[in-house]
Amino acid sequence: MQIKPTINQKSGLLSNARQHPSPNFDNRPNKNDINLIVIHNISLPPGKFGGNWIDKLFTNQLPKNAHPFFTQIYKLRVSSHLLIQRDGKIVQYVPFHKRAWHAGISCFQGRKGCNDFSIGIELEGTDEQAFTNVQYVQLKIIIQQLYLQYPSLKKGNITGHQHIAPERKTDPGPFFDWQRLSTDLNENLPANATLIIGSSKD
């Protein structure tokens, strides 16, 4: 029987995640105001999976000359709370009760500055292909644990980066299966209106 992960209330860390701390975080304006989950996708270099380039980006160690694309992003100071890799392994960069720098200029239901009150979850992937089945399985389990730990997190307050920053961002993209996540959680998610082009990939 699989043991469900837990979140340590004091540390804000997920028990089954590989911890790779990022320096790119600070305190939330209100530590008790956590009521949104933002889903992203990321791959480095774009369209390539595996390796440790995402770790390096989120820890300010991305080498400028390792790939042409890195010259555009190596100076960025960004982070997310979690990364779910293609094989389902989880990496945590920022404790959940701290403010990660993942959303940028953003707005959710009239509230600006989503970093202040959200948890950012990256899925290793792109806008051009389906995510894996195990990524959805892990995402469901993580969200359920977040609900248990953070009562201020309202059910249904799950959205994509593209929905809170539509002029700048496109992720998690048209291949993210919002209907599957809605069914898995038994919730009506605001992003369900997004057209679903692809299903999960094993």
Features:
single chain; 202 residues; Lysozyme-like; 5 helices; 10 strands; 17% strand
How would you describe what is shown here?
- The chain is of the alpha/beta class.
- The chain has a single domain, classed as Lysozyme-like (3-Layer(aba) Sandwich).
- Helices cover 19% and strands 17% of the residues.
- The chain is built from five helices and ten strands.
- It has helices spanning 53-58, 70-73, 133-149, 161-164, 178-185; strands spanning 18-19, 25-27, 36-42, 82-84, 90-92, 98-100, 107-108, 111-112, 118-124, 158-160.
- The strands form three sheets. The protein has a six-stranded mixed beta sheet. Strands 2-6 form a two-stranded antiparallel ribbon.
- Helix 3 (133-149) crosses helix 5.
- The protein starts with 17 loop residues before the first strand and ends in a 17-residue tail after the last helix.
- Mean pLDDT is 93; it is low at 193-200.
**How many H/I helices?**
5
Q: Give the structural class.
A: alpha/beta
Q: CATH homologous superfamily?
A: Peptidoglycan recognition protein-like
CATH fold name, please? Lysozyme-like
Amino- and carboxy-terminal Cα gap: 21 Å
Strand content: 15-25%
General shape: globular
How many domain units? 1
Order of helices and strands: EEEHHEEEEEEHEHH
Strands of the widest sheet, in order across it, are 1-5-4-9-3-10
Low-confidence residue ranges:
193-200
Count the E strands: 10
Helix percentage range = 10-25%
- Mean pLDDT, to the nearest integer, reads 93
Major sheet attributes: 6 strands, mixed
Radius of gyration: 16 Å
